[in-house]
Amino acid sequence: MAQEVDELPKDILDTFFPLKTNMPNDGWNACYRTLFAIHLIAMGEAPLYASETTSADRYRFLALEKPSSVVTVHIHDETTFAVCKRIDTITANGRAFTFAEQRLELTKYDRKTILVNVDLSGFWSLSIDGEPHGLDGFRYVVEAKVGDRYNVVDRWCPKNDAFAKLCQSFLSIHDRAWTYQSKTPWWSRLLPTAK
Question: What's the pTM?
Fold first, then answer.
């Protein structure tokens, strides 16, 4: 699917990643919040924060690597599935993105792994932003909407901690989704981008 990011909504930050009491404006700044929102918009993702409360618990993982990818896990009472997307191409002008999407039914083990790692990481009490930062590496953003509860956590190159394990569980789901995809050539998934 091709998505052109022509003009960003004026309320993009409040819609996708609003400031909260534990999110200092000088910490997790508007630049990063905008960057994350642009990636989510490019992959056709709706705001999780501003979404209506549903019966599904939703966890979203955004990996700013090469290629960028997003995994949204929907946990319902009886079923659990993941929608995995990744950016395949970015046009020369940097405004149009082509992304591929896979849906994967998850097992009870997958569901338990996500929920256990959410608990072990202390996700609901983690601060939005963490140290350190750098120029070479990757960013992982995990957000969740469970009932009326919402939290978002952004970390630069997390490793060797419980939050890193949570991120790895999302990456594992993402990798499985692409392993199970149909055997069509990679180039057949690319759609022409808008001019």
Answer: 0.78
